[in-house]
Please model this.
Amino acid sequence: MTPAALAAKHLFDAHERRERFEPLPGVIAPRTPNEAYAIQDAFVALRARKLGAIAGYKVALTSAEMRRFVGVDTPQAGTMFGSTLRRSPARIRAADYVRLIVEFEVAVEIGEDLPAADKPFSRERVSTAVGAVMPGMEIADDRDADYKALCRHPLDLIADNAWNEGAVLGAPVKDWRGIDLGAVRGVATINGIKVGEGRGADCMGHPLAALAWLADHLASIGRGLLRGDVVITGSIITSKFVKPGDRLRFELEHLGSVELAID
Model:
């Protein structure tokens, strides 16, 4: 087996055993972003046997503060599976995760292919390929990670598919072009209590800037965004730990709302 395959199997087994998130052992730990994404690809392939086809992507660490916290200078990308994408209102069980966290994002659905040959991608170019926009909540599992230690092994977050376990999506808004996605205000509540708010610009200055970054990243490894792919562009509100009984709602100005119940 290649080092990437060995690392992916190590990660896959750790997930199956519900073990705490820990750095990969030194001999198989990624030394460069390219090695980390190679591990992610192999890990995603193993999970796809159970979770099915790839249906989209996430962009992580879209704020400068979070990148400094983790010890990197660029965002990170992860892959989402179709079986883990849910429509609002949705329910999930906290017991299905080691430690469940939820983030609040502007989500987009790709309406036409963005092939790798078209790189580099500008915000304006990717906007022409966006078929719909909607509010979304990312479902993630940090597996009880020690956040203070992340900066010592930031590439392991890439290898572990940026902790993604899916998303909950609101109703797609196809007539979105008159909406300033950078200015839209989002408000998150848990059990009716406001827990945070943000604006689209809190994500790399504009959600479509995050989408352009992702399109360039995929093109760098010979891939393109495809029609029907869903992309969650990065949380505009700090991550929230949730527990059974919690009821979450995220309302995005002009774009509707999304709801999630935790059992």
Summary: The first strand starts at residue 54 and ends at 60.
